[in-house]
Write a structure and sequence with these properties.
The complex is a heterodimer of chains A (634) and B (141). Chain A has 634 residues and is of the alpha+beta class. Helices cover 19% and strands 31% of the residues of chain A. Chain A folds into four domains: 105 residues, Alpha-Beta Plaits; 300 residues, Peptidase S8/S53 domain (Rossmann fold), CATH 3.40.50.200; 84 residues, Immunoglobulin-like (Sandwich); 103 residues, Hypothetical Protein Tm1070, Chain: A, CATH 2.60.290. The N and C termini of chain A lie far apart (82 Å). Helices cover 30% and strands 30% of the residues of chain B. Chain B has a four-stranded antiparallel β-sheet with strand order 1-2-3-4, covered by helices on one side. The radius of gyration of chain B is 18 Å and the shape is globular. Classes of the chains: A alpha+beta (634), B alpha+beta (141). At the A-B interface, strand 29, strand 32, strand 34 and strand 35 of A face helix 4, strand 2 and strand 3 of B.
């Protein structure tokens, strides 16, 4: 029977198939998955037990199909059906599903063996594949095994490890070392004229030599996480089985200077300008001092399309609040700031965090990796978490070669959401390399907002992607569900004013989301600071008494802090904290013991309250009149 | 006049009290009289307690300008200090702001203490008006 005859018979048997075929141009998702096809394709079918046998055989006949196998345990039959291409397969499957004799039918999907390397210590690498070993939570890993079905890395992708150097003689790393194509090793000459002699694998910026041998161990451990040679029957596997590791030493066991770090970053940019495809810099280091030069250097890396995975730091604090750690804290699009999580997907106790400063977590507790002198060692820290992200970025480069924003979006969108990380890191999740590789980039995504806190009315800039070139109908930015007034709107940037009626909870945090016809964005947080009411104020004397009038308009008791000082720029402690019941509260502000005649009095409250000043004017203790000074809310 | 009588007169003069034969009321009686009048809303009677040179239509307007904005609910004399012909009365008084006196409605009573000056003229205590004082905030809204 030829094709026309087959299709004609199907149309006659199942009228709905005509419509299905007409719509077949837009294939369902399953049709894009690989199926056993050729002259025939296979489907898995379960027929209804109540259906007459005649009905089932009639369907097989109409399809020209054969029942090849029946799994009686699960009551699943394998049918071989003639194929005229993917479109017809989809339509036929729809028709089979619609047949009254059929309970369910689906393609006979192909499954591939998940790649795992043969490295003997791989079973201890819970961060790559967590099966619950070492008391962990199965699946609490970076999903490397699933990602390796897409790519295991590419030697053409260069990752610069800016650290304590790399033991380039380590048998599990040697094969993945970057090689300077313009340098002849061991000839004692600066062949490429870059100021470093024999910089074959990188440099030592502390000694200005071309020998980045690691004498501390940290850099070798980090390098192994990113790219210990995989599937070589030796030791461990890196996130990348194949990659090029550029060894850039600027630290010893005691640390290193920003000046030497900048030499390393200059080296990266120099090699990049010469065509070396450096895609990632790993920065498993940091400290509390913000460096303008360091930030500028990383901004230049961004211009070159180079990502930086930076450790969030090990102080156990909230960045920007109780701890600081740079470079992780710079708000640059190419910096992915990484906190550490453990084998149960919880934030490590030592790890810094922070919604505005940390992007995601990655495993960083008891990570086994390479160590100098052909050794392996377990280490913990955000230093071990950052290279997981560097490795992920290298895999992304190998598979998709994304730009800075796409790489960022893939990592953040793809992060596996974890309830315990909600509000702690920007993505609210842990690194998931497989999702990063496969995540659909559709709808708006907010990368950053600035400022991150302020009172109602504050202009807030959202930076992101796919907002739309203009605010189409239905486009808006919500603060806890209240639409904000739009100041300006571009595809990559929106400026809005924080709505006055956005009610923050006790924490004062508002959830911000961009809504467009293309979908809703991720949710980011904005800390609404207190309403501030300002009043000019002169201290009381014999001719004047002042009374602060505080009115609570809300349905609950709210607190208010009364501040006073020569100006609001002079931060002083509040002079009074007032609990406002559902009533008016008077405060005799003469008791605040201010001095001078140019004082400001101001009140802050998380709720919108009434604040005014009442002045009693006297002559020798005789009331001459009342004055009223309304506050100015800023 | 005997020596005893002379000494009594000198002593009374030093302490600022009126001689026992004076028909003038003592300071505390005068203070109570003034504040009781205000408590009753009797501003005309209260105004009579002001020093004589203040008792003009302009003076009354100045007096009433402040007191019509409040309604007194109670008072308490906390302290009287006499220094020659001058005295200071520390008065704690409770009052409400009259409707319309301020742009906001304030129903809650307010208690504040003031130091009111009194002056003695011809043996009688009067409220010291000091109409020369001017508050810099008076002209502001």
């Amino acid at each position: 029977m030829n094709t026309k005859t087959t299709l004609a018979r199907i149309f006659l048997a199942a009228p709905s198939l005509a419509l299905a075929l007409a719509l077949a141009a837009a294939l369902p998702a399953w049709a894009q998955a690989p199926a056993l096809s050729g002259e025939t394709f296979e489907i898995l079918v379960r027929t209804k037990a109540t259906a007459p046998a005649q009905l089932k055989s009639s369907l097989l006949t109409r399809l020209q199909a054969q029942s090849a196998y029946h799994n009686s345990e699960f009551d699943v039959q394998v049918w071989k059906v003639p194929s005229q291409g993917k479109a017809s397969e989809a339509a036929i499957l729809d028709a089979v599903r619609a047949d009254p004799a059929v309970d369910w039918a689906e393609p006979n999907y192909l499954r591939y063996p998940s790649k795992t390397p043969n490295d003997p210590l791989f079973s201890q690498q819970w961060h790559l594949l967590n099966r619950g070993q070492q008391g962990g939570l199965p699946g609490a890993d970076i999903q490397a095994a699933a990602a390796w079905d897409s790519t295991t890395g590419d030697r053409r992708v260069v990752v610069a490890v800016v650290d304590t150097g790399i033991d380039y003689a380590h048998p599990d790393i040697q094969g993945n070392l970057w090689v300077n194509p313009r340098e002849i090793p061991g000839n004692g000459k600066d062949d490429d004229g870059n100021g470093y002699v024999d910089d074959y694998h990188g440099i030592d910026a502390t000694a200005d030599t071309g020998d980045p041998m690691d004498d501390a161990g940290h850099g070798t451990h980090v390098a192994g996480i990113i790219g210990a040679v995989g599937d070589n029957g030796v030791g461990v596997s890196g996130v990348n089985w194949r990659v090029s590791l550029m060894a850039l030493k600027f630290m010893t066991a005691d640390g290193g200077t920003v000046a030497d770090e900048l030499k390393c970053l200059a080296y990266v940019l120099d090699q990049h300008s010469k065509g070396v495809p450096v895609r990632v810099v790993n920065a498993s280091f940091g400290s509390g001092g913000a460096s303008r030069f360091e930030e500028e250097a990383i901004a230049k890396l961004q211009d070159a399309g180079i990502m930086v995975a930076a450790a969030a730091g090990n102080d156990g604090g909230e960045l920007g609040v109780s701890a600081n750690n740079y470079p992780a804290q710079y708000r640059l699009m190419n910096i992915i700031s990484v906190a550490a999580s453990d084998a149960r997907d919880t934030l490590a106790s030592f790890s810094n965090y922070g919604f505005y400063s940390v992007d995601l977590t990655a495993p960083g507790v008891d990570i086994v990796s390479t160590y100098p002198n052909a050794a392996y060692r377990l280490l913990s820290g955000t230093s071990m978490a950052a290279p997981q992200v560097s490795g992920a970025l290298a895999l992304l480069s190998a598979a998709l070669n994304p730009g800075v924003l796409e790489a960022r979006e893939r990592l953040l969108r793809g992060a596996a959401p974890k309830a315990g990380l909600d509000g702690k890191v920007f993505s609210g999740g842990r690194l998931d390399v497989a999702r990063a590789l496969g995540v659909a980039l559709a709808g708006p995504y907010i990368f950053d907002l600035s400022p991150t806190s302020g009172p109602p009315g504050t202009p807030v800039t959202l930076k992101g992607v796919r907002f739309g070139t203009a605010p189409l109908p239905g486009s808006q930015v919500d603060f806890d569900g209240k639409a904000a007034s739009v100041v300006s709107w571009r595809d990559d940037e929106i400026v809005v004013a924080v709505p006055a009626d956005a009610a923050a909870g006790q924490s004062g945090t508002l959830k911000v989301q961009a809504r467009t016809p293309g979908g809703d964005s991720n949710t980011v947080l904005f800390r609404r600071s207190a309403y501030r009411y300002f009043l000019p104020y002169a201290p009381a004397d014999a001719s004047r008494q002042s009374v602060l009038i505080l009115c609570n308009y809300s349905n609950e008791t709210v607190s208010a802090n009364v501040f006073a000082g020569p100006s609001d720029a002079w931060a002083i402690k509040p002079v009074a904290e007032v609990l406002l019941p559902l009533d008016v509260v008077y405060r005799n502000v003469g008791s605040y013991n201010l001095s001078g005649d140019k004082n400001l009095l101001w009140v802050e409250s998380p709720q919108d309250i009434g604040v005014d000043l009442m002045l009693f004017n006297y002559a020798n203790g005789n009331l001459r009149g009342l004055s009223f000074i309304p506050s100015e809310r800023r | 006049m005997g020596l005893r009588t002379l000494l009594l007169i000198i002593a009374l003069a030093v302490c600022g009290c009126a001689p026992f034969w004076s028909r003038q009321e003592p300071l505390d009686t005068r203070v109570h009289g003034y504040w009781n009048a205000l408590l009753k809303g009797d501003t005309k009677t209260a105004f009579e307690y002001f020093e004589p040179n203040f008792k003009t239509p302009e003076g009354y307007a100045l007096f009433i300008s402040g007191n019509r904005q409040v309604s007194y609910l109670g008072y308490n004399i906390q302290k009287l200090e006499i220094n020659g012909g001058q005295a200071t009365a520390s008065i704690s008084r409770t009052f409400k702001i009259m409707p319309g006196a301020l742009p906001v409605m304030l129903d809650k009573p307010l208690t504040m203490t003031i130091a009111q000056k009194w002056t003695r003229q011809d043996g009688t205590w009067y409220v010291d008006a000091d109409d020369k004082s001017k508050n810099p905030f008076m002209d502001k809204p």
